[in-house]
Write a structure and sequence with these properties.
alpha/beta; about 25% helix; Rossmann fold; globular; eight-stranded mixed beta sheet; binds S-adenosylmethionine; about 270 residues; binds zinc ion
Length: about 270
């Protein structure tokens, strides 16, 4: 973190931050945030209750580790190319998407993950020491303006004003949203004949196109075989409450159907 001092600003007063050897991140107005022994910083300025649990993030990690999103990681890395120096994943959860993408990029790239759920960041810091992990709120993020070449926003809420503030000139956002086929085999069995089965993201796409320059959309759809043991993890990796007897779910493949929205900073 010390080497990347320049990325941070105080989430309270927006002042410049200094990373002190004593394990504190402090601004000129003495707002101070502790670097936890697990290797992350909590920048939240108010208590936040998240519905995302430790169990959910551990399950998400197992599903991502099983390779279900490798194609997505390759697509994102292809878009980023080799010249990025700093990437921020907003709503990074347990951090595996950021880590997998960074592994496909140049060794120098600095990867920073932020999530409002402390359990997600704790899980990320536990498994991946070499990235910068922050508990923080997108509405009030602890980063300096024009700091990042790319912002990732994968299956998470967004704050486009903040993204435009944080991106360098010419920097880009890559937002990933689910499409109608996403995990359809699972949803069909859990929500048979329920309205929860459907996704519509046209409003999201419209807003994205309004907020960023040269916006483009790119859909990726593929099926992945799935081991039986992973089915309960798929059920546990979402807070939507996909309650069903996992024994009753008969699944040997799942569809990944996602849209990547890519747009440049409006500056
Ligand atoms: C569906 S999860 C996706 C996590 C991860 N990107 C992934 O795909 O595995 C949505 C994430 O957004 C985070 N989130 C929600 N509101 C947020 C906010 N205001 N600031 C930062 N993160 C937020 C949640 O805590 C959660 O980890
Ligand atoms: Zn401050």
């Amino acid at each position: 973190m010390k080497e990347n001092n320049r990325l941070f600003c105080c989430p309270i007063c927006k002042g410049v931050m200094d990373v002190l050897a004593e394990g504190e991140v402090v601004c000129g107005n003495r707002h101070s945030f502790t670097i936890a022994k697990q290797g992350y910083v909590n920048f939240l300025t108010r208590a936040v209750r998240s519905m995302y649990t430790k169990n959910l993030f551990e399950s998400r990690k197992m599903v991502i580790d099983a390779g279900l999103y490798n194609t997505l990681h390759n697509e994102i890395a292809k878009i980023i190319g080799n010249s990025a120096t700093a990437i921020l994943d907003t709503g990074c959860g347990e951090g595996s998407h950021l880590v997998n993408v960074c592994e496909l990029l140049n060794d120098e790239v600095v990867g920073v993950g932020m999530d409002i759920a402390k359990e997600g960041i704790l899980t990320a810091a536990k498994y991946y020491e070499k990235k910068i992990w922050c508990v923080g709120d997108l509405a009030c993020s602890p980063f300096r303006e024009q700091s990042f070449d790319y912002i990732l926003n994968i299956l998470s809420p967004a704050n486009y004003g903040e993204f435009n503030r944080l991106l360098k000139n010419g920097g880009k956002v890559i937002k990933v949203v689910p499409q109608s086929g996403y995990l359809q085999e699972l949803r069909k069995q859990v929500f048979a004949h329920s309205e929860k089965e459907d996704y519509s993201n046209e409003q999201t796409v419209k807003r994205f196109y309004e907020q960023f320059l040269d916006a483009k959309r790119h859909r990726i759809t593929y099926k992945m075989p799935i081991e039986k043991e992973l089915v309960p993890k798929l059920m546990e990796m979402t807070p939507l409450g996909w309650h069903a007897e996992t024994g009753a779910i008969d699944l040997n493949e799942v569809t990944i159907d996602l849209e990547l929205l890519v747009g440049s900073c409006k500056r």
